[in-house]
Structures are given as C-alpha cells and as structure tokens.
Amino acid sequence: MTRNYHRSRIDANQPAIVAIFRMKGWYVLHTHDLKNACDLMVVKDGRTIAIEIKDNDKPPSARELSEGEKKFRDNWTTNGGEWMLIECIEDVLKIAPLAHHNSGGRRSPE
Fold first, then answer.
1. Which of 6, 51, 54, 93 is the most exposed place for a label (fewest CB within 10 A)?
2. Does the 14-93 domain belong in CATH 3.40.1350.10?
3. Helix, coil or strand: residue 71
C-alpha cells in the first residue's frame, strides 16, 4: 500500500532547538507535519507552549509566518494558549522556567 502524503520541511535549526529544549527538561512533541499548526508543542512543569521555528540565518522575508501559521497563532493565543517564535538556540535559553505557569494568552513578539 502506497501512502500519499508529503512530509513537511523543517527549518535547518530545528534539530538543535529540539535538543536544547530536551536538555532543559522540556517534553517535545513534533507537530510540523500538521497543516496550519505550529512546529512543536513543548511542556514542562505544567506550562505548555506552542512553538513556531524560523531559521534566523535566512533573510527576514523567508522567516515570515504563513497565513496558516498566523491563523494558528491568533486562535491559540485568543483561547489562552502561549505561543512563541523561536529563531535560534538563544531564544530557547531565554524562556524562564516557571512552575504552575498561566500564560493568559501571551505570545512572543514577531
């Protein structure tokens, strides 16, 4: 039986970003194969963050969110979810470890 699906491309920096999340104790779920969704869901100490990864080595025009990514971000944060744009390992290291975190629908700047 042949499967008819297309695996989504991942940004070149995604494996390193995933490795840092895991090293810092985050559980990482890959969601980049889902249409109009974020690239990762990460959770630690009761805090869940939807992560969109863009490669900061690419020009700004190549790092723009697609319409589907924008719609996901807006729906996720409107409903109280936390969303972050991660472009490099340093962005992961800046995430403050907060136990019992309630984001109130905040999102990182684009």
1. 6
2. yes
3. helix
